[in-house]
């Protein structure tokens, strides 16, 4: 694990323990924010001075001192002091949905619960029934929440969650009275994984949509069915799951029913992120206004929420109107992470799905793909692409039927013939996804690579390599004159394989220097580069390729996940090679080759 990740985990733990011990809420938020900023930071905190650390937004003098202590001693005094006050097992208890820090603290102090096992035993024995405000229904909800936590496991990859959310939205949109409906939350922001699904709707009358939601196929438990909020646990089985990808998993889905007059405010609030919303509320207060999920209101001294007093909102019907009244542009949902977006007064032209005109990483039956060469080209033409690169695996990928040099040369000959037949319609490039060996050598000799139109170099093995060795390995590839694209650079797989952890700061600057594009692999199990790495590359002026790593026709549909990741990293069209014209793209590919031969 990188030092940044270790520091962020320590700060997150401080925040969690502070909650359990009843510390000031603002201190908790400060540590949570610092943890998020450090985790996303492009620079290595190990090489930053205390002054440089304090210049990072969200990291003040006190937190900077904690970071310095952690990197020098491997510990933080405050964290050790908090750990001494709180049983270690309570952190796991705090992860149970619906068990907030106040409830967990009560269970600890009033019932002696110090771990998940103790909580389960206490629930089974009935000893918690004597606690105030711990009735039979509350205790049953806790039991079911624990069961849900154990069966749902990690966060859901977006490729499972988004089709599910779209199916639910489509189902509810057909219900009588539903006027507006959309999914929100981290899903709308395009995060690579999500915890639950948030849906916002306007319905008049609300009863039909409430009934349709709580009785839809797959509902295993109705958690709430109120006037404005309904919550269910949904088993992802059958028709609502794409290709069975989520079968056997459960997810919590929340439906918020809001007035039409509050649609924009509710959508903004429930989209988040929490950190972005906090910054918006701070800005509103400075302008003598107050912002909540019902609207943007004038600020006064009455503590009663303005919507309850019939105060007319300044803006509420659209997100755009609220941002405008706050003196801000309307940030795309993918940018709403409090990563500096509120400092912008003009939104950069972020890449969109419709901008992508080329697929530069695709496989056929020659290796482990499911399409023939002709079928792949037909599919690319159907998508409106002007270029398709055929990049079957190299010989080291035996598990993927990688091509020997002889098979590769025969494959290249067939691709050239296909290109001659299709040239007026689409450019068909002869390439390879070449394995990066553990020491950074490529799987084919240079004389073989020189025969290709495009080289995508990717790591597939040795993915637990030491970070310094991983950095050296990838730098050697980037410096290779015949490499065009560094494919899925870390080799991670969601949710459990971390992949390589190189110094991405070095990687992106080397890629910029050598004109190599770093790939966002759009498959929902990869999304590698991840969003924070994309942002780092954008800031460095590095080229980015957004590819689908196509093995079968439906893999082209994963493009939207790659584009969401790109937008989260603020990628613009100009720096994405897949958006270039056919002529510009081919010129870039040839320049690399000419530079190598020169």
What does this structure look like?
This protein has 598 residues and is of the alpha/beta class. The protein has 4 domains: 3-152, DNA polymerase beta, N-terminal domain-like (DNA polymerase, domain 1), CATH 1.10.150.110; 156-256, Beta Polymerase, domain 2 (2-Layer Sandwich), CATH 3.30.460; 264-343, DNA polymerase, thumb domain (Beta Polymerase, domain 3), CATH 3.30.210.10; 353-597, Alpha-Beta Barrel (TIM Barrel), CATH 3.20.20.140. Helices cover 42% and strands 14% of the residues. It has 23 helices and 16 strands. The chain has helices spanning 3-20, 25-40, 50-54, 61-73, 77-85, 90-94, 101-111, 116-125, 136-152, 158-173, 185-188, 207-214, 263-271, 274-286, 319-325, 373-382, 405-422, 446-449, 467-478, 504-514, 531-540, 559-568, 582-597; strands at 156-157, 178-183, 193-194, 197-203, 219-225, 229-236, 249-257, 289-292, 295-298, 358-362, 387-393, 427-435, 454-458, 485-486, 517-521, 544-547. The chain has a 7-stranded parallel β-sheet with strand order 10-11-12-13-14-15-16. Strands 2-4-7-6-5 form a 5-stranded mixed β-sheet, with helices on both faces. Strands 1-3 form a two-stranded antiparallel sheet. Helix 1 (3-20) crosses helix 5. The protein starts with a helix and ends with a helix. The model is unreliable at 238-244 (pLDDT under 50).
Supply the CATH superfamily name of the largest domain. Answer: Metal-dependent hydrolases
Named CATH architecture of the largest domain: Alpha-Beta Barrel
Could you name the CATH topology of the largest domain?
A: TIM Barrel
Rg for CA atoms: 26 Å
Number of domains: 4
Indicate the overall shape.
Answer: globular
Low-confidence stretches: 238-244
Structural class: alpha/beta
Largest beta-sheet details: 7 strands, parallel
Strands of the widest sheet, in order across it, are: 10-11-12-13-14-15-16
> How many β-strands, per DSSP?
16
Regarding CATH, which class of the largest domain? Answer: Alpha Beta
Q: Overall mean pLDDT score? A: 91
Kindly, what is the distance between the CA atoms of the first and last residues, rounded to a whole number of angstroms? 41 Å
Number of helices: 23
Percent of residues in beta strands? 5-15%
Indicate the percent of residues in helices: 40-55%
């Amino acid at each position: 694990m990188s030092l940044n990740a270790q520091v962020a985990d320590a700060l997150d733990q401080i925040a969690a323990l502070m909650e359990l011990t009843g510390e000031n809420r603002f201190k908790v938020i400060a540590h949570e924010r610092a943890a998020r900023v450090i985790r996303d930071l492009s620079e290595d905190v190990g090489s930053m001075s205390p002054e440089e650390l304090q210049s990072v937004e969200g990291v003040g003098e006190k937190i900077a001192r904690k970071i310095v202590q952690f990197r020098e001693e491997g510990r933080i005094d405050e964290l050790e002091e908090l750990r001494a006050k709180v049983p270690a097992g309570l952190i796991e208890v705090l992860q149970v949905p619906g068990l907030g820090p106040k409830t967990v603290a009560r269970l600890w102090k009033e019932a002696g619960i110090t771990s998940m096992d103790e909580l389960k035993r206490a629930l089974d024995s009935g000893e918690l029934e004597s606690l105030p405000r711990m009735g039979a229904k509350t205790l049953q909800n806790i039991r079911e929440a624990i069961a849900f936590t154990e069966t749902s496991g990690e966060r859901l990859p977006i490729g499972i969650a988004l089709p599910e959310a779209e199916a639910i939205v489509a189902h509810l949109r057909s219900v009588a009275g539903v006027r507006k409906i959309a999914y929100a939350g981290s899903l709308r922001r395009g995060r690579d994984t999500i915890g639950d699904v948030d849906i916002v709707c306007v319905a008049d009358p609300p009863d039909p949509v409430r009934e349709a939601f709580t009785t839809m196929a797959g509902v295993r438990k109705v958690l709430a069915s109120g006037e404005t909020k309904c919550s269910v646990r949904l088993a992802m089985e059958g028709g609502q799951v794409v290709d069975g990808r989520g079968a056997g998993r459960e997810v919590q889905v929340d439906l918020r029913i809001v007035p039409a007059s509050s649609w924009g405010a509710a959508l903004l609030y429930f989209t988040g992120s929490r950190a972005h919303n906090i910054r918006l509320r701070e800005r509103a207060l400075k302008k003598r206004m107050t912002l909540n999920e019902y609207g943007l209101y004038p600020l006064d001294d009455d503590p009663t929420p303005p919507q309850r007093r019939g105060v007319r909102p300044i803006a509420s019907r659209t997100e755009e109107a609220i941002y405008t009244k706050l003196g801000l542009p309307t940030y795309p949902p993918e940018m709403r992470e409090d990563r500096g977006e509120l400092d912008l007064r003009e939104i950069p032209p972020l890449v969109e799905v419709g901008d992508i005109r080329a697929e530069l990483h695709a496989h056929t039956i020659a290796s482990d793909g499911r399409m023939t060469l002709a079928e792949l080209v037909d599919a690319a033409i159907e998508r409106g692409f002007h270029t398709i690169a055929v990049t079957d695996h190299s010989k080291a990928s035996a598990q993927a039927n990688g091509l020997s040099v002889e098979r590769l040369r025969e494959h290249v000959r067939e691709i050239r013939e296909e290109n001659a037949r299709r040239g007026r319609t689409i450019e068909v490039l002869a390439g390879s996804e070449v394995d990066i060996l553990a020491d950074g050598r490529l799987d084919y000799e240079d004389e073989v690579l020189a025969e290709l139109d495009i080289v995508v170099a990717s790591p597939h093995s040795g993915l637990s390599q030491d970070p310094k060795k991983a950095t050296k390995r990838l730098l050697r590839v980037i410096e290779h004159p015949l490499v065009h694209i560094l494919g899925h650079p870390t080799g991670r797989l969601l949710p459990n394989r971390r992949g390589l952890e190189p110094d991405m700061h070095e990687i992106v600057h080397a890629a910029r220097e050598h004109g190599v594009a770093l790939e966002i692999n759009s498959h929902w199990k990869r999304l590698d580069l991840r969003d924070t790495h994309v942002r780092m590359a954008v800031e460095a002026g590095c080229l980015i390729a957004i590819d689908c790593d196509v093995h079968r026709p439906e893999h082209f549909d994963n493009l939207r996940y790659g584009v969401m990741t790109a937008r989260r990293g603020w990628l613009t069209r100009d720096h994405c090679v897949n958006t270039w014209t056919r002529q510009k793209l081919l010129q870039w590919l040839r320049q690399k080759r000419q530079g190598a031969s020169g």
